[in-house]
Design brief:
It is a single chain. The chain contains 17 helices and twelve strands. By secondary structure, it is α/β, with parallel strands linked by helices. The strands form two sheets. Strands 3-2-1-4-5-6-7 form a seven-stranded parallel sheet, with helices on both faces. A five-stranded parallel sheet has the order 10-9-8-11-12, with helices on both faces. The longest helix is centred in the C-terminal third of the chain and has 28 residues, at 364-391. The chain starts with 7 loop residues before the first strand and ends with a helix.
Length: 392
């Protein structure tokens, strides 16, 4: 009998077993970059996509995932890349709430966790299939063979109990100063922008238009739009307040506001809040939901400006040189990213009642500086990915 040839794996690992635009986009771009620019480094590997559990979100043009447990016997010399996201502080209970299809179930889990944390953690690990308390901080000793672990532009504040696991990494890049300061107290790390910022170097409008429905292309070609997103758990205003501001814009300018949900997983629920905004609007503001990652990207990249609570919505806009505003000054990961990498006025949070006034700003005078800043930031990402390629 001929022995089966065993292939080393590049395992792209992250929170993409539920639909959230940024989380699902990261592994797509990582694979695209490695295959396009480091073909020799990856040619002897099989590239796989792993999360805590298996998933099939191909209807949104996302990657299918296999559970990380399927890779615990990976061939020696394989490399596990945690592709990014707010993963360093993500515990199993919080992640378990995000995959609940029923919002009531998510609320019950959060409430139970306050009263019986150890019991809820046990339930979460058993039902979700997670093997680690902090699922996106892999424990090397869980693998049968020797693998390398790499953290690519990750965010979050790791708990002290995870120091040993993080110290075992072959390479770590941190996506903002908040994460960088926390990780560097444990292990050497590099300050590198979230790798989604490189998207405009990998994806152009010709590609996007081949992956976007006709009615969406018609909208952005016939009207000047702004895209507006909000997560109900990350706002400091009511749907009625947002609706009034968008109605003001619709009635006093040639710009059409468009509501654009980005986070669909439980615990994000953008569409829940934005539907209430639509219902409260007197001008009939439109909502575009259930879009693929490319359709969401196309709408943001085609906008006059993007407003929201989504980090990766802001990063997509920034990459394509689109004005981008955080509409809640208390979102630490988003505020820290903008302070670290963007320019004035986009690195300052605004109130929802300031949206209309920002449209009067002369953005053209800032565009060249913004694009130059983005290019410098993308170069840092490419330098970091070159180091990851060298490890491969």
């Amino acid at each position: 009998m001929i022995a089966k040839h065993k292939v080393k794996e590049i395992i792209l690992y992250g929170a993409f077993d539920r639909y959230n635009y940024g989380d699902n986009l990261m592994p797509i771009l990582m694979e695209m970059y490695l295959v396009r620019f480091h073909a020799n480094a990856v040619k002897n590997y099989n590239i796989s996509f792993a999360s805590i559990k298996s998933s099939d979100l191909t209807k949104y043009e996302c990657k299918k995932t296999l559970p990380i447990t399927d890779f615990l016997n990976a061939e020696g010399g394989s490399v596990l890349i945690v592709v990014g996201g707010e993963v360093l502080s993500a515990d199993v209970v919080g992640l378990f709430t995000h995959v609940q299809k029923n919002p009531l179930h998510a609320k019950l889990i959060r409430a139970g966790n306050k009263l019986f944390p150890q019991f809820i953690k046990k339930i979460a690990k058993q039902n979700y299939g997670a093997i680690w308390d902090y699922p996106y901080i892999p424990q090397i000793n869980s693998f049968k063979n020797k693998v390398k672990v790499i953290y690519n532009t990750v965010g979050g504040i790791p708990y002290p109990s995870q120091k040993e696991n993080i110290t075992n990494a072959a390479y770590i890049s941190s996506r903002d100063e908040r994460t960088y300061n926390a990780v560097s107290s444990m292990v050497p790390t590099e300050l590198v922008p979230d790798s989604v910022l490189m998207v405009s170097s990998l994806i152009d409008f010709d590609f996007l238009e081949k992956h976007v429905r006709f009615e969406i292309k018609e909208l952005v070609k016939s009207k000047k739009i702004i895209t507006v997103q909000a997560c109900p758990y990350k706002v400091q205003f009511t749907p009625q307040e947002m609706a009034r501001e968008l109605d003001l814009i619709a009635s006093t300018s040639d710009v059409q506001p468009v509501l654009l949900p980005i986070g669909y997983a439980s615990g994000h629920d953008d569409v829940v809040f934005l539907q209430k905004v639509k219902d409260a609007s007197l001008s009939g503001v439109a909502i575009y939901s259930d879009l693929s990652v490319w359709e969401i990207m196309y709408m943001i990249a085609s906008s006059e400006a993007f407003y929201g609570t989504s980090l990766h919505g802001v990063i997509t806009a920034m990459s394509f040189g689109v004005p981008h505003y955080c509409i809640n000054h208390d979102i630490k990961k988003l505020v820290s990213f903008l302070k670290t990498w963007s320019i004035y006025p986009y690195n300052e949070s605004i109130a929802v009642t300031d949206i209309a006034s920002t449209l009067k700003y002369d953005h053209s005078s800032r565009r060249s500086e913004l694009l130059n800043t983005v290019e410098q930031s993308k170069n840092r990402i490419f330098e970091s990915l070159n180091k990851i390629s060298a490890i491969l």
